[in-house]
Design brief:
By secondary structure, the protein is mainly α. The chain has one domain: Growth Hormone, Chain: A. It is built from 18 helices and no strands. The longest helix has 33 residues. It starts with 17 loop residues before the first helix and ends with a helix.
Length: 490
């Protein structure tokens, strides 16, 4: 049977189609294969490695590396004007990053609980820095690719939606399956199993990235951001432009809120299921229900964006998220009576609130990457320079800052509630691992309340970022695209 010829557009590129969407989806799936276990880090380093007294401080310290790492790599990519023979420069960096991620993730979960405290600290910092470096090398150019694959608003919305599917799949499978593997029958975490899974996930992520690289077509003329007549690239100026870029700042605030909810609350949620609902293994299955609204909304995203606009839809989603977070307070505030022997009613309330939060989050997450693509265009519209790498890397930095500060704050707050009260130093001054079975019912109730608070904070962040700061409504976006197209043609 003869092979069907590839259809080309007016510029000689392969016409945009499902192949592009699926390929871009595989990229986020690859990222999440490495990222999926990050929510387990707090439990691993407190309950397995016994660093409960150090974890929050160490997590904040490694964020300093994030501060240097993300913008630095983004600026290197923007300033790199070499011509790569095999692939586009963005794809080349992704290829290099995907190789490092094979072992980078596993280095964050080396199970040596008997090692001295100094050795554990060195392993934590070294492993995290290595993983984060390779993750940034792959993730920053991957995010920038969306604005280069297509300039059409509908196609960008489709790419963003498909990326959300990749992210959802990359989170859903680990979220549902891993708890049945990594937890023992007594609700404790098995460190060796976590390490093995991290290695396997690195290999799977590498394969996903290779599929994306092979099937990605660059259609937007990248020369518009590498004009030799423009002033020499200036990182400080680019950072200043980012802070003046309202769409980028608004989308970043929303993303920070989202990750405070997803990563900060994830730590408290895991402990809640261990000691409050007393069923750690089913925690992932129940959390998996949160993917349902996203799956339902994703196929409708492109049409709804064209009709209502990205800002308009995502702002409504943030309000929906706040409503869901409010429902999570019914149990902790005593509106729904809960006893130590009967938490089933509160579990139903928790699932209901989580579903409503997920509906609001699903609206934003399906268009979030398209909104950043528009923010990159906005930077070009206002300053004459696109600076994909720096704009996206700064956005990525603040996302990762939230991913770090969220769990760090959660562990620190849980510590004041009594989460680390049974972790005492031995004769050598080393802290022992936390035994969750020794935590009291009062501690469990306090941590359940913390979950609701973190979700509410996340919803408020999203509303401020999307509703009050992000300024590219449907009308403004159309005007910007029209002027940019005319400028490029000229």
């Amino acid at each position: 049977m003869a092979k069907k010829p590839v259809q080309l557009d007016a510029n000689g590129h392969r016409k945009y189609g499902v192949r592009d969407s699926v390929a871009y989806m595989m990229g986020d799936l690859g990222c999440n294969m490495s990222f999926a276990l990050k929510g387990t880090m707090a439990l691993f380093w407190t309950q397995v490695m016994g660093l409960s007294q150090w974890y929050s401080i160490l997590l904040i310290i490694v964020q300093v590396w994030d501060a240097i790492n993300d913008p630095l790599i983004g600026s290197i990519i923007d300033a790199d004007k070499r011509v790569y023979k095999k692939r586009n420069k963005f794809l080349q960096y992704i290829f290099v990053g995907s190789i490092g991620l094979i072992i980078g993730g596993a280095c964050c979960f080396v199970p040596v609980p008997q090692a001295p405290v100094a050795a554990k600290i060195a392993i934590f910092i070294g492993g995290y820095v290595l993983w984060d470096a390779f993750y940034t090398v792959a993730n920053v150019p991957y995010g920038s690719l969306l604005s280069l694959i297509s300039s059409d608003a509908g196609e960008r919305a489709s790419l963003s939606a498909w990326r959300s599917i990749g992210g959802a799949l990359g989170n859903f499978v680990p979220m549902v399956v891993f708890p049945f593997i990594i937890y023992n029958k007594d609700q404790s975490l098995n460190g060796i199993r976590v390490f093995i899974i991290a290695l396997v996930m690195g290999v799977v992520g590498f394969i996903c990235f290779q599929v994306m690289i092979k099937n990605t077509e660059i259609r937007v003329d990248t020369d518009v951001k590498c004009n030799e007549d423009q002033p020499k690239f200036n990182v400080i100026k680019a950072m200043g432009n980012f802070m003046k870029n309202r769409p980028a700042v608004g989308a970043t605030l929303a993303a920070m809120g989202m990750f405070i909810g997803m990563q900060g609350a994830a730590t408290a949620v895991s402990v809640t299921f261990q000691i409050y609902f007393d069923d750690a293994r089913s925690s992932g299955l129940i959390s998996g229900f949160a993917m349902i609204p996203m799956v339902i909304f994703t196929p409708l995203a492109s049409r709804m964006v064209k009709k209502f606009g990205k800002k308009e839809l995502s702002t409504i989603g943030s309000i929906c998220y706040i409503v869901g977070a409010a429902i999570l307070f019914l149990g902790p505030l005593g509106i729904i009576p809960v006893t130590e022997d009967n938490t089933k009613i509160d579990l139903i309330v928790y699932i209901l609130g989580q579903l409503i939060c997920a509906l609001g989050l699903g609206v934003y997450s399906t268009v979030s990457w398209a909104m950043m693509g528009d923010a990159i265009d906005y930077n070009e519209w206002k300053t004459g320079s696109r600076e994909e790498g720096v704009v996206y890397s700064l956005h990525s930095f603040f996302r990762k800052l939230a991913q770090g500060l969220g769990p760090a704050a959660a562990v620190a707050i849980m510590g004041t509630m009594g989460y680390v009260n049974n972790s005492a130093p031995d004769a050598k001054g080393n802290f022992t691992a936390i035994d969750v079975n020794l935590l009291s019912w009062e501690v469990a109730c306090d941590i359940r309340m913390l979950v609701a608070i973190l979700y509410l904070v996340a919803g408020i962040f999203q509303f401020i970022g999307l509703g009050l700061v992000y300024n590219l409504d449907k009308k403004t976006l159309a005007k910007m695209n029209e002027e940019l197209e005319a400028r490029r043609e000229k």
